[in-house]
Structure formats: structure tokens, C-alpha cells
Amino acid sequence: MAYENLALHIADGIARLRLTRPDRGNAIDARTLRELADACEAIGAAEGVVVVLIEADGADFCTGWEAATRDDIASRRGRVEEAAVVDPFGPLAALPVPVVAAVQGKVCSGGLELALCCDLRIAAEDARFSIPDVVERRMPLAGGTQRLPRVVGRGVATAMLLLGQELDAVAALRCGLVSRVVPREALSEEADAVARTIASRGPLALRYAKEAVQRGIELPLEQALRYEADISTILQSTRDRAEGVRAFFEKREPRFKGE
What we know:
This protein has 259 residues and is of the alpha/beta class. It folds into two domains: 194 residues, 2-enoyl-CoA Hydratase, Chain A, domain 1, CATH 3.90.226; 48 residues, Lyase 2-enoyl-coa Hydratase, Chain  A, domain 2 (Orthogonal Bundle). It is built from twelve helices and nine strands. The strands form two sheets. A six-stranded mixed β-sheet has the order 1-2-3-4-6-9, sandwiched between helices. The chain has a three-stranded mixed β-sheet with strand order 5-7-8. The radius of gyration is 19 Å and the shape is globular. The mean pLDDT is 88.
């Protein structure tokens, strides 16, 4: 697929995905959703991808939904059970590798829901987070009522949803919505450094850790601990684990192959 609203570049273990509609605030339309699904499929099929970095052109990361796309998704719910209707950002959330988002300006409605599908979020100091759908007499379309409280807790999520409360970057850092805040001019450099750090890790360990967090949070603690132990046992038998041990004793950088 030829992309118009996104750009995808894969190199050195990093898949760089960029929103490229700055003149529309990177608002999400039907084509953006199709391109995002296609890009996620391409990332999943590519060899050697260890981490995904999502960025956006312009002043705002994403201002939300295009009205026509929002209305179309809302009208189709209840009539069809397509994955694209139930979870529009499902292809991104389902990626097995870590996903990092670098956000600036407005991160609003569908834009916040998109960022919530990522594993780490790095914010510029000018970032503002909101999900005003309920205040505007609509329901969030892509997991806002579900992923948001899992990240920031019930109290903060409820205030954002029911009162339309906006969080600045400092408040987002305080509640765990973002992992770090940097000056706007340093955002790209910081995000790149984080992505490169992750890309230097063992691919299998990264995938297993992400899987353990995602699945474990839905399980009772006792079952989650057993799940973690099972994954740890599997990891111990991999070639990457043996390479990590050898590299430690030989005092060199490990050469992981995801095996």
C-alpha cells in the first residue's frame, strides 16, 4: 500500500512510524486506519524489528477523529462485529514488540487512545492530554474507557472522561501516563535514544516481558506469577540467553539474534 497519512521506515531493528497530516492536526480518518493496519502487518512480517517508534509531524501529535470516520465507526457498531470496528487500533496494540510513542501538543480523543496502545510514552513539555468524548455526548471509540484506567488508575481516568479534565505533561508524568517529559526541541532525540536502547536488548526477552505484562495484568496474582515463571523458564533455554551469559563473561556487547 502507498501511504499518504503515514510514513514507515525500518532499519537497525527500529520500525519508525510517523503521522504525516500536520495540516489536519494528524486527525484520524478511514485511510489512516487502513494504513496503520497495513503498516502493523508489514512490521510484523519484517525480520529483525525489535521496537516500534511512533512520532508525528507538526505541532500536535493527534487531535482526534475526523468527524466522518468517527460517525461511521459509531454507526456500524451493533450491526457488525468486525475487529476494525470493535478495536480500531487493535493491530497496533497486538504488535508483539515494544512500541514507544513520542507525543507533543494536543493528544486528544482518538489521539490519546492511539498513544494508549503503546507501551511507553515520552512527552514534550507542551503536550496536553484529553478525552472529551463523553463531555461532547459521545463515547470513546478505541478503548478510552478501558485502556486509560489501566494506565492511570480509575480516579484520574474518571475525571478525564466524565469532567473532560485535561492533563499537562507534568500531570501526565505524575500519574504514569508518560514515562518522561523533555523540552519540545529534544523530543525526537530523546525518543530515538530510548528506541535505540531498547533495540540493543535481547529481542526475545523484550517480547516475553511485554507479553507477561499484558496478559498478567488480567490474571489473578497467583496465576500471573506462574505465567511469569513459565516464560522465564522458556527464555533460559534460548540461544540469546546463552549469548548474553557468554558476552558478560567475555566483557563484550552481546550479539542477540532473537533465537
